[in-house]
Amino acid sequence: MSNSPSDSTDLFSGSGGGSPFDVATLLFTARRLFWLPLVLAPLAAIGGFVFAKTSTPEYRALAEIRLESRSMTPAASLSGPTADGAMSPEDQNTIIRTFVNPIMAREVVKKLKLGERPYFNGKAHPSEDDLVAFIMANTKANIVVGTRLLQVAVDYPDPYVAMELANAMAEAGMKYDRDQRSLALRENVQYLEDEVKKLEANLVGSETRLNDYTRTLGSISIDQDVNIAADKLKDLNMRSTEARAKRLQLESSYREIQAYRENSDALLGIESIRSAPGVASLISKINDLKGNLAKLLKRYREANPFVIQARTELAEVEKTLRQQALDVAKGIEADLAAARRNEEGIAAEKAEQEGKVIKVKEESIQSNVLRRQIDADRLAYEAALKRLNEELSQTRSQLVMMQMSGPAGPGYMVSMSTSKTVGVAGLGGLFLGLGLIALVAQLDKTIKTVESAESALGVSVLSAVPRYGPASDNPGLPFRDYPVMMDRCCAAAEAFRTLRVAAEPPVGIEENAVILLVGAAGNEGTSFCAANLAVALGQSGQRTLLVDADLRRSSLEERIFDSVGQYGLSDYLTGRVSFPNIIRSTPGENVDVVTAGTPHAHPAELLSKEAFATFLEEARLLYDRVVFDSAPVTVVSDTLRFAHLCQTICFVLRFGKTTPAEAKRAFELLARGGVKVTGTVLNNVSPAFPIKLGHQDLPEEVFSNQGKFEFPVHCPSCNRTYDSPDDFIHQTGPPGPEWSSNVSGWSEQSERIVRRCNCNTLIVLPPVMRRDNSSAGAKRREAFAELMSTLEKSGLSRDAARTSLLLTLKMGRSEMNGEAHRENSEASQQRRKLYDEVLERLVAGRMSRAVAETKLLHAIRIWQNAP
């Protein structure tokens, strides 16, 4: 069973997976640990002051070096310069990181003979390595932003020694730079000379191999041979194409001629024959003759000699044309054979030429490879030769060279003044304290607000009880000092009156509700809450029985009666005593108590007996409300044995102590036993701001019974006057726990309202005419004293006699009358049983039965009529 969403596992998340940062928790932690930064800040300031006074002052000397930019000649690179006079951030960082190194520090140690200076680094006879480490630790190099100035800073307790060290380090750095540049120059030149020789040998070798290959082929120019062969092959390709086209044309004409071999007229219809020169001229001549004949026919008749001559000439020409067509057909066949022979010859010549071209190209491949190698070797040789010439022409080969810009002067103080040191240390301590408060607030997962409790557990908070002096913290606080008893006007007392209303029995249960207050792991304040709730219920006029069901660590008996080991619940459950013998009266109005009783070896088994249900039945018959204080459910199983018999379950959470995990575990255990929690009580709440009671917040005891108190009230010390209850409550404060020792008698104390004046004097507001001094009151006291005396004669102790008689009178005050002994209900039988036990005790005290019954009934009746 789960009552709320699962908790977040994030360390920095709120309870129940809520806000990742709980402001309320932070404020509470800050309020609780406000002293932490207030303590750490002065301590840190004192430490800073001591440090400033005891530490040796430090002086800093600065030497400035100018970084000059030159035309760049990259060292040992054949790719050429990539920048011209530029100094990149990488170059600057390299200079800064390499400027201070052990080599330069060792040179400074030797140059200044620091080994001969005792206590230079705090040691009488430091070694060279110690001095080198000391110089490196106290020397810093940095390039001024936006400039080419390199600052060398040296810290030392003596300003002149700091100046000497700074200048020495600057000079050592510049010397180191010159040595490095000179070494780089020599290495670069040597490298380039070796590279030039190697590339020159490669170039000579490549050219020799090409000459040898050309001599082997017997050709001066391989490329020219390739071009000639390629041009000839191209010409043969063109001729082959023309021959093939001619052959195809002749083959087409030949196929047509074969179809009309002897038909001259049909042969003339073939285009290749018609286009032949002899045939074409004859056709043209025939056309001319036909035209001439047509003209003659228009002029002459057929028999005209001119016409006959023209026809004869036309016939001869046509005959010649037909013969010519046959001759042309025979000539085409001969041309086709010649075209085929020509095409075959060209094809053979083309194949031969293609072989020659392939051979020449194969021979040119190796030649081209050798030529490209020569070109590559020549380029590399020329580049290396150029770089060598550049290196030899440069007097300085590095991008940056160093020159002293400003020698260091006497050092200036860099250690903070005493005031600054104290201020910084104090602020550091303050922020450390604030950080610790924030860390504690984040790590604290306990329940501190009503919202977080309801979100984590899924049930309503019935009341939030604010912290009341030591009442919520001190586990041994006497009962008389509880807020509902001591100060009915305080916020804690009002919280319990709120709980009294919220803990009313569920709908359907009209009377005699049983209220159980239970905690998770102990020390939540269940006894404190149970006792105050019982008193609040009694003050409302309800007969209330407070039962201490924590048989392992009982506390109510010691708090209320300042005693231990008297008969109580455990004795009743084991059958040692009857119910009336364990009822004990308290200073609280309408409140009786049943203590835990004699310790028992097996309390869980004892609480699970049927005798507990019998006890509960007897209690509900005699009291309007039964309030149980119980053991924590996650520690022992005692409470789980009887929790299902209670109508209202109030789960007590302790502010700043109970965690959601503990509460959920307890809820699960109760749920397994079929118990549903009615609501929670958030106890010992630390208010973020002082609680001020308005008119609506004042206890009902003051405003509903104003006639019960006499105003105005005067302070006996400062003589200040309080004209009304409103002035009295608003202008006074809680009395504090020590007030109870200044008044006599619990019964008197419970009837008073006590407040503390601004002059720190206690003001007791007694009720007006609280004691009934009338004749009826005197008769009640006389009847009670007579019955008490008779019960003591029967063998009862005074406390036992008083308890039995008060129980009988309280029972009959609102319910018994003269006809009560004739009722047949279970409640009537229980009341009759108590009545009979007291009656038998009176008879045992040497009072006749008739007189005893008369006096007892008379006492009950006059007790009913008491104000």
TrEMBL record:
- UniProt superkingdom: Bacteria
The record, for CDD domains, names:
BY-kinase
Q: Which UniProt keywords apply?
A: ATP-binding, Coiled coil, Membrane, Nucleotide-binding, Transmembrane, Transmembrane helix
Q: Name one GO molecular function term.
A: protein tyrosine kinase activity
- Read off the InterPro entries from this record: Bact_polysacc_biosynth/exp (IPR050445), P-loop_NTPase (IPR027417), Wzc-like_C (IPR005702)
Q: Which residues cross the membrane?
A: 33-52, 422-443
Transmembrane listed as a keyword? yes
| The keyword Transit peptide is annotated on this UniProt entry | no
Naming one, the record's GO cellular component terms include: plasma membrane
Q: Which residues form a coiled coil?
A: 182-216, 371-405
Matching entries from PANTHER family are given as: FERRIC ENTEROBACTIN TRANSPORT PROTEIN FEPE, TYROSINE-PROTEIN KINASE
Write the protein's name. Answer: Capsular exopolysaccharide family
Q: Give the organism, scientific name.
A: Terrimicrobium sacchariphilum
